Amino acid sequence: MSIAANPMTIAIICGAIGLGVAGAMARYVLKQDQGSGRIRQISTAIKEGALAFLGREYKILAIFVAVVAVILGIIPSLGWWVTLAFVGGAICSALAGYIGMNIAIRANSRTAAAAQQSLNSGLRISFRSGAVMGMTVVGIGILGLSVFYFAFNQSPDFLKIIPAFGFGASSVAIFARIGGGIFTKAADTGADIVGKVEKGIPEDDPRNAAVIADFVGDNVGDVAGMGADLFESYVDSIIATMALGTIAVFSTKLLPDMKTAWLLPMMIAAGGIIASIIGIFAVKVGKATAKMKALLNALRRGTILSAVLTAVFAFLSVHFMFHLDNNVFWAILAGLIAGVAIGESTNYFTSYSYKPTLNIAKSSQTGAGTLITSGFANGLMSTLPPILLVVAAMLIAHHFAGIYGIAIAGVGMLSTLGMQDATDAFGPVADNAGGIVEMSNLPPEVRERTDALDSLGNTTAATGKGFAIGAAGLTALALLLAYTQAAGIRFADISLLDPKVIAGIFIGVMIPAIFCALTLNAVGKTSFAIVNEVRRQFREIKGLMTGTAKPEYGKCVDICTRSAIKQMIVPGIMTIVAPIVVGIVLGKVALGGFLIGAVACGFILAVTFSNAGGSWDNAKKWIETGVFGGKGSEAHKASVVGDTVGDPMKDTSGPSLNIMIKLMSIVALVLAPVFVTFGNGLL
After folding, report:
1. Contact 383/608 with Cβ under 8 angstroms?
2. Is 522 in contact with 280 (CB distance < 8 Å)?
3. What is the pLDDT of residue 339?
4. Is the dihedral angle over the CA atoms 350, 339, 382, 656 positive or is it negative?
5. 71, 211, 249, 361 — which has fewest CB within 10 A?
6. What is the rounded CA–CA span in Å between residue 24 and residue 220?
C-alpha cells in the first residue's frame, strides 16, 4: 500500500510545486516595468489579436471535442468514462497553451523595457516568462494524470480510460499547432516579402501592415500551439508506459505488480519537475554584452544540470523507493541522454555559431537558389544524429528492460520538459520584444540586445523542436507497441510478406507527405492574401511609406485568423480519420504496418523541415550582423527568400508532424477494442 500511495502523493506534490513556481514566475514578470506609452500600445494590439484568435480557435475545438466525446460514449466497447478522460485531456491541453500565451503576450513589452537596461535583464524576464509555460505544462500534465489515476486505477477498464486522456490532449494539440502555425508563418512570410524584399524597409518596420499579425502569430503558434504540443508529448509518454505495464509484470517479470508499472513513470516525471526548476534558476549571464556564446552557455548549463539531477532522482526512485533492478534505470538514462544529445545536435545544425549554418549564409552570395539547396541539404543531413540516437536509446532500453524499457526511456527523455519548454517558449517573447523595440524607435544598442535574444530564441526553438520530434519518435513507438498488445497482435503477425501489412506501410508513409502538402499550401494561400493586402495598403494609403500615415494592422490579423481556422480543419481531421479507416478496411495488423510507415516517414520529414528552416533563419540572422554586405545586400535578399521558404517548414509542417505521428498511434490504442471486432478488416 505504501508503494501505491506514497509515490503518487509525491507526484502530486511535485506537480503542485511546478504550478506554484509557474505562478511565482508569472508574478515576477507582471511586476516589471511595461515601458513607455508607445511600447504599451503595441503590446496591447498584440494581446488583443492573440486572444481574439485563440477565442475563435477554441470555439471550433469545443465543437470538435463535443462531437468526438459523444461518438466515444456511444461505442459499446468504450463507454462514457472514456469520454470523460478524452474531454479532460482536451481541456488540460488547451489550458496549458492558454496560460503560457497569456503570460507571453504580457512579457514582450516588459522584456523590451528591460533590454534598455541590460541584456541580462531582458534575458531574465523573457526566460522566466518561458518558464511559466514549461512549469504549467508539466504541472497540469502530472496533476491531470493523477486525478484519473486515483479515480480509475481500481477499474478493470483503467487501460482503456487513461489513453483517452492522451487522445484528448493530442486532438487539441494538432489543431492548435496547425492553426497557430498557419497564422504565424503566413504573417511572417507576407511581412518579409513585401517589407524586406520589395520595399527594402527593416524587419518589424511600423509602416508594414503585417507586422502586428506577425507578432500575434509568434504567440498563437510558437507559444499556445507549442504548449499544447509538448503537453500531449509529456502525457502520451507516461500513458504509453502505463499501457505497456502488463508486459513488464507478466511477461518479463521486470516489475512486481501493475501498480509499480503505473507509478514509476509518474515518479520519474515528478523528479524531472524538481530538476527543471533548479535548472531554470541556474540560467543567467553575468555581463551585459550581447554575446551569443554566453547566452547559449547559460541555457546549456541549465539544461545539463536538469538532466543530471533527473538522472539522480530516477536512480533514487528505481533503487530505493521501488526496490527494482537497476536495468530499469539504465533504460531511463538511455532516453535522458538521447534527449539532451538530440538537442545538442539540433543546435549544431541550426546555430550560426557552427559551420553548417555559416556555410548556408556563405552560399547566399550566389543567390537564393544555392542558399535554398544548401539549406535543404543541411536539413536532410541533420536527420543522422537524432535517428541514430533514438535507435540507440531504443535498443539499449530494450536490452535492459524489454518493451517496457522503450516506453520508460521516452519518459526519461521528456522528464526535463519543464526546462526544455522554458528554453523554447522564451524565444517568441524575445522576438516580440525586438519588434516592439524597432517599432518604438528605441536606440540601436537596445535593438542589438533584443537581436541577440531573438537569435538565441531561434536556436533554442530549433533545439526544442528537435527534442520534441525525437521524443515523439520514441513515444509513438511505445504507443504502437501498446496498440499491438491492446489489439492482441503478436510481433510475428506483422509480416512484410503480408500484402495488407505492406499496403498499410505504404499508406502510412504517404500520410505525412500529404499532411505536409496541406499545411504548406495553407501557409502559401494565406501568405498570398497577406502580401496582396500589404501591397494594397502601400499603394492606396497616402503617406504610408513616408511615415505620415498609419497602416491598417487589423485587416492582416483578420485575414490570418479566418484563413488559419478554416485551413487547420482538413489536415487535423485527416490525422484522426486515417488510422480508423485503415483499421476498419484493412484490419488491425495492417494498421500496425500503417503506424510503422507513418512514424518512420513523419520522423524524417519533421527533422528535415525543422532543421532546414532553422538554419535558413539563422543564416539570415548572421548576415544581418554585417557579414556579406549585411542588411539590404543581395546576399541578405537571398537569405530572406530562404527564410520565407523555411518558415512554414520549421514552424507549421515540421512541429505538427510530431503531434501527427503520436495522435495516430494513440487513436489506434484507444480504438483497439473496435479494431479487434473487425479482425482482418472489410477487404
Report:
1. yes
2. no
3. 86
4. negative
5. 71
6. 23
Q: What is the pLDDT of residue 462?
A: 67
Helices (H), 116-157: 119-152
Contact 294, 285 (CB under 8 A): yes
CA angle 604, 653, 658 (to 5 degrees): 55
Confidence of residue 286 (pLDDT cuts 50, 70, 90): low
Cα separation, 14 vs 11, in Å, equals 5
Residue 336 lies in a domain: yes
Average pLDDT over residues 286-290: 53
DSSP state of 552: -
DSSP for 15-77, written as a single string: HHHHHHHHHHHHHHHHHS----HHHHHHHHHHHHHHHHHHHHHHHHHHHHHHHHHHHHHH-TT
Q: Helix, strand, coil: what percent of the chain each, to 5?
A: 85, 0, 15
Residue 441 contacts by C-beta under 8 Å, 6 or more apart in sequence?
none
The three cell numbers locating residue 547 = 511615415
Closest CA to 379 of 537, 552, 604, 531: 604
Split at pLDDT 50, 70, 90, the class of 200 is confident
Q: Which structural domain, as residue segments, surrounds residue 363?
A: 2-678
pLDDT at 2 over 70: no
Q: Is residue 295 over pLDDT 80?
A: no
Q: Domain tally for the chain?
A: 1
Residue 386 belongs to some domain of the structure: yes
Hunting for cell 541580462 — which residue is that? 120
Instruction: Give the list of residues 6+ apart from residue 354 with CB closer than 8 angstroms, or none.
Output: 347, 348
Mean pLDDT (whole number) for 32-42: 90
Query: What does each C-alpha distance from 296 to 103, 302, 344, 409, 428 come to in angstroms?
Result: 23, 10, 11, 26, 16
C-alpha span between 79 and 65 (Å, rounded): 16
* φ, ψ for residue 432, nearest 5 deg: -60, -40
Cell 516595468, residue located:
33
At 133, the amino acid letter reads: M
The residue with cell 497602416 is 551
For CA atoms 151, 482, 417, 455, the dihedral sign is: negative
Name the residue with cell 538565441: 456
Asked whether residue 5 carries a pLDDT value surpassing 50, the answer given is: no
pLDDT digits (tens, 9 = 90+) for 622-658: 898 889 998 889 999 899 999 989 989 988 998 899 8
**Helix-helix angle 444-486:292-316, to 10 degrees:** 30
Question: What is the C-alpha separation between 474 and 494, in angstroms, rounded?
Answer: 19
- Is position 683 within any domain? no
The C-alpha cell at 166 is 492522451
pTM score, whole prediction: 0.90
Asked if the model's pLDDT at residue 315 lies above 90, the reply is yes
